[in-house]
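Objective 1b of the project was to move from sequence-level analysis to a structural picture of ligand recognition. The entry below was assembled by the postdoctoral researcher (A.K.) and checked by the PI before modelling. It contains the amino acid sequence of the target and the SMILES of the bound compound, magnesium ion.
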Amino acid sequence: MTPAISCEQVQVGYGDLQVLRGVSFDIPVGQGVVLLGANGCGKSTLLRSLNGLEKLQSGRIRIHGDSLHDASRRDLRRIRCSMGYVFQQFNLVPQLSAFQNVLLGAMGRQRFGLLSCLGLTASAEERERAMDCLDRVGMADRALHRPSALSGGQQQRVAIARMLMQAPRVVIADEPVASLDPKAEREVLDLLWRIVREEGLSMLCTLHQLDLARDYADRIIGMKAGRIEIDAPVAEADRDRLDALYIGMARVDAQHDGEAA
Ligand SMILES: Nc1ncnc2c1ncn2[C@@H]1O[C@H](COP(=O)(O)OP(=O)(O)O)[C@@H](O)[C@H]1O
Ligand SMILES: [Mg+2]
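Corresponding predicted holo structure:
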């Protein structure tokens, strides 16, 4: 079966800094993978590369078999629509309610999206679906709240509802719980993983805690200084090797003057 995500010898750099140094892996449909690695090892650059925003120096990325690099603009748009992103900082629009933020998830699918997101032209069906999405993340009773009136965990739930509204096939989550307290962290990961399973989605998710990675992942990919060091089913991911990801020259700019990533 065609993998959901396929990376073949991907290399990405910025000026003199070589960030991704030949990254290869396939993620089968339905698998939830956690990407681990020290700050500055290239995780976010890899995740950004997956929707065609980063220019590859070499290598190839395919999403459900479609190569990002030979795609027409129209195909690229379709591929991007099939990918849902969840970020550390939630990226909700502060002026909009939770409900309107979720409606935004339908934007990629139609023209005049901005108007419809404000609830002016959204169809009854879209509104109903947006409420369903909020309901699935346990936020229906907060539909009219703005992000500032919600806790971090609640905001991330809304962001997950927006992602669900988009109806993606692949989910890319970059440190989705890094801004949350330990209780909210587990609640959000429980929710995210439940939705990924229920919808039969494929996911690549960065986390920075080994214990969380072990509790949620099907498989762990460990990166160090722009290369994959570990790629194993969670039960076979050796603790010492995982710890070693964080020791020594882990950042891609280790030889440069290090700046926090
Ligand atoms: N747009 C960019 N321009 C220049 N350097 C960048 C850019 N994006 C990331 N980097 C550098 O690439 C390295 C890896 O960053 P990143 O992918 O964010 O790592 P991680 O997510 O693992 O912390 C860092 O040294 C960072 O400063
Ligand atoms: Mg990062």
